[in-house]
């Protein structure tokens, strides 16, 4: 391949990554609704790019589980069914505690403390009887679980959880939209962060496992 061809390839991959970020953001913020068809031309016009990076981005998002291919109808935004949530949490309860053990020695203390401050402020708001927006809770939840994924030293485990990352985020959003036992769940997050702070790998594994099982059970009881 010529130098010019290599340069064009790098530009195409960079554009596709940016387009994927934009489409992903629109999905996670519900600008693109579950079941909505993805129109390559319309997305390209909106973002000011050709169809090629849009097509590459769509392939990446389909691999992440955010888009689903419908025969004869291109791709749609994947809907999050109860079965999807069960399956994702079944994987999380096995993989995230292991990822926590692999990550705990490597997560910078200042990052743990920053997320801990967020959850302690939520606890204070809750104790004062104030309503905490579900968006704020789900974003803070994602930051905590994201730390574990980002600093996991088992690369295969990290790569697998990274693919699931945005499906996990959608599960977190869904669970916070039916807020029950908010005080208990906030306390669980604070416990997890304090275990990260103390570098207690065994305690962290147990706390993550209990937290994921608890939230899955509460969510399913609420919606069924």
Descriptive notes:
The chain has nine helices and three strands; from the N terminus they run αβααββαααααα. With 224 residues, it is mainly α. The chain folds into two domains: 3-77, Arc Repressor Mutant, subunit A (Orthogonal Bundle); 82-223, Four Helix Bundle (Hemerythrin (Met), subunit A) (Up-down Bundle). It has a three-stranded antiparallel beta sheet. It is globular and about 50 Å long.
Give the percentage of residues in beta strands. Answer: under 5%
Could you describe the largest sheet, including whether it forms a barrel? 3 strands, antiparallel
Compute the number of strand runs: 3
Mean pLDDT: 88
End-to-end span in angstroms?
A: 56 Å
Give the CATH superfamily of the largest domain: GntR ligand-binding domain-like
| CATH architectural name of the largest domain | Up-down Bundle
Helical fraction:
over 70%
Secondary-structure element order, as H and E?
HEHHEEHHHHHH
Which CATH first-tier class of the largest domain would you pick?
Mainly Alpha
Helix segment tally: 9
Tertiary shape: globular
Number of domains: 2
Q: TL;DR?
A:
With 224 residues, the protein is mainly α.
Describe how the helices and strands are arranged.
Blueprint: H1 3-28, E1 37-38, H2 40-47, H3 51-63, E2 67-69, E3 75-77, H4 82-103, H5 109-127, H6 134-150, H7 155-177, H8 182-198, H9 201-223
Antiparallel strand pairs: 1-3, 2-3
